[in-house]
Amino acid sequence: MRHPLKTLALAGAVAAGLGACATMDDGASAAAPQPAHPVDAARFYSGVWHEIGRNPMKLTDGCVAGITAFMRDADGRLIDRDSCRMDDPVNGKEKVFAGPVDILDPVTSAKFRTHYKVFGIFTFSRTYWVLDNGDDFGGGWFITATPDFKNVSTFTRDPQLSPADRDRLNAHVKALGYDPAGLEFPAQPPR
After folding, report:
1. pLDDT per residue over 96-117, tens digit each?
2. In the chain, what is the straight-line distance between the N-terminal and C-terminal CA atoms, in Å?
């Protein structure tokens, strides 16, 4: 049996580590691009998006088949549920971070902040900008980044992209000023 204080200390250490990976404010870098287009909030903030590419970070080591799922809770609040599978895209243990979402710019709906809960006690927030989005690549795609110009990720509705479509998506990333060579492309589940 774990000692309650050791468990609390471990939870605090994990929350602190996650907080170190998170952008705690909107401190945008002067080099960070602004969102190119508004997003259709009803379409964008619903359903499942598959994380195709991302900057490597400690928080995602071993994570494959990353998913961002937007849904509503019983009170109608928008929830962001980020998950992945550890090492195996189908049978790996699921890792989940979820929390309520604030849309920061209701005019374009392209900037939002998620307040993630850890162990049901701790909260850390992360701000995302949807830098670009479109309807191709099997039903839709978007590129999101933190406003500090450090982390960028690409998402699509379809978990399986052709090499040509991945190259086209990476060209969008490059056009925004990010180096797609720095991205990792975790394994995806089959369709």
Report:
1. 999 999 999 999 999 999 999 8
2. 41
